[in-house]
Design brief:
This protein has 95 residues and is mainly α. It is built from three helices and no strands.
C-alpha cells in the first residue's frame, strides 16, 4: 500500500468516525430533549445527566475526528494525485 493510499484511507476512516460520532451525538440530544420534557423523577434526572454526558463525549469525539481529518488533508494534499484529491476533497466537504 502506497503512503498516499494509507493517508487517503486514514482520512476516510476519520470522516467515517466523525459521521458515526455526530450521529450518536444527535441521538443523545434527542434523548436529552425527551428527558427534559418528562416528569422529573430521580431516575429521569439520572438518565438525563447520563445522556448529556454521552452527548458531550460523542460531540468531542466527532470534533477530534474532524480536526484530524482536516489536519491530514492539509498536511498531505500536495502529495495526493489529482484523481484521488477530488475524492479526498469530497470526503472533507462532508465535515
Amino acid at each position: 500500500m502506497s503512503i498516499t493510499a494509507k493517508i487517503i484511507n486514514d482520512i476516510r476512516n476519520k470522516v467515517r468516525e466523525y459521521e458515526t460520532n455526530r450521529s450518536q451525538a444527535e441521538n443523545q440530544e434527542n434523548l436529552v430533549n425527551g428527558f427534559k420534557n418528562a416528569t422529573q423523577t430521580k431516575s429521569v434526572k439520572y438518565q438525563l445527566r447520563e445522556a448529556q454526558s454521552y452527548q458531550t463525549i460523542f460531540e468531542t469525539n466527532a470534533a477530534n475526528h474532524k480536526q484530524e481529518a482536516n489536519r491530514l488533508y492539509m498536511e498531505y494534499k500536495e502529495y495526493i494525485d489529482s484523481n484521488e484529491l477530488s475524492e479526498v476533497e469530497e470526503m472533507i466537504d462532508k465535515l
